[in-house]
Specification:
With 302 residues, the chain is of the alpha/beta class. It contains 9 helices and 11 strands. Helix 8 links the parallel strand 10 (239-243) and strand 11 (265-267).
Length: 302
């Protein structure tokens, strides 16, 4: 495909690998299983496969807690299997879209294992730390998974930030070394032939936790434009999708600027919360107001 906007003309098929096709009888779907179904997917007219996370992970959050960005979780197979999937899919004009988590890692990632050893460790500033006293977090910022977003580490007398699970420490995007590590990793995957990336909760990377700003931080688009320039734009024809819970229609235009400075497109979730009771979680529902839904969806038709 030489068309730079090929992704506008195809069907993207999401695969949750562990429940798609098991090739070895262990009860868990895997990459070889996906390879065995490529002909079927081609017959369906699929032009790209978006894989839910397959990188190495302790699976505390179903793969959204990555412990090695450059390896495949053994439950799904090996790096060789991933390369085979990319190659075999490409022979059928099917691109492989990876699900990448750049806001945080697993607490079992080697970076974090080093970071928590001491304040002087070279990897310490790869994550977001604040001094404090045990039992008195830096502020009342909450985790999406419940409880405080701050976790105490007695060995060094500091709290680290986790906007999700306590096992998902947030990366410090203010550190240029972190950004460079991420760009090198993404370019490594691009060199292996992946067709693009879905960027998990990417609107959180510009966070300013001291001000309790999580999404849409002041440096967010600066980081994304740098990310795009150092990776996606060099490849030229990738599909990039940002998961952006905080995007309004106007903000979405920044993410998906046709000049290619950020992403191809974003997921926006304004309609998702219309049946939630105000001030409560997503499980406490109220009747959906159809007219309100229509109003929200109409904003995205322009």
């Amino acid at each position: 495909m030489e068309n730079k906007n090929w992704w506008k003309e195809i069907v993207v098929y999401q695969i949750y690998p562990r429940s798609f096709q098991d090739s070895n009888g262990d009860g868990i779907g895997d990459l070889k299983g996906i390879v065995s179904r490529l002909e079927y997917l081609q017959q369906l007219g699929v032009g790209a496969i978006w894989l839910s996370p397959v990188c190495k992970s302790p699976q505390d959050d179903y793969g959204y807690d990555i412990s090695d960005y450059r390896d495949i979780d053994p439950m799904f197979g090996s790096l060789d299997d991933m390369e085979m999937l990319i190659h075999e899919a490409g022979k059928r004009d099917i691109r492989i879209i990876m699900d990448l988590v750049l806001n945080h890692t697993s607490d079992e990632h080697p970076w974090f294992q080093e970071a928590k050893k001491s304040k002087e460790n070279p990897y310490h500033d790869y994550y977001v730390w604040r001094d404090g006293v045990e039992g008195m977090p830096p502020n009342d910022l909450g985790s999406t998974f419940g409880g405080s977003a701050w976790e105490w580490v007695p060995e060094i007398g500091q709290y680290y930030l986790h906007l999700f699970s306590v096992k998902q420490p947030d990366l410090n995007w203010e550190n240029p070394k972190v950004r460079q590590e991420i760009y090198e990793m993404i370019n490594w995957w691009i060199s292996k032939g992946v067709g693009g990336f879905r960027l998990d909760v990417i609107d959180l990377i510009g966070k300013e936790p001291d001000l309790k700003i999580t999404s849409n931080g002041p440096n967010l688009h600066k980081y994304i434009r740098e990310l795009s320039k150092e990776t996606f734009q060099k490849a030229g024809d990738l599909l990039t999708v940002g998961e952006t819970w905080g995007a309004t229609p106007e903000i979405a235009k920044l993410y998906s600027n046709p000049d290619g400075s950020e992403f191809s497109m974003v997921f926006q979730f304004e309609h998702i919360s219309l049946d939630e009771q105000e001030g409560k979680g997503k499980w406490d529902l109220k009747p959906l107001d159809f007219l309100e839904l229509k109003k929200v969806l109409s904003k995205w038709q322009t």
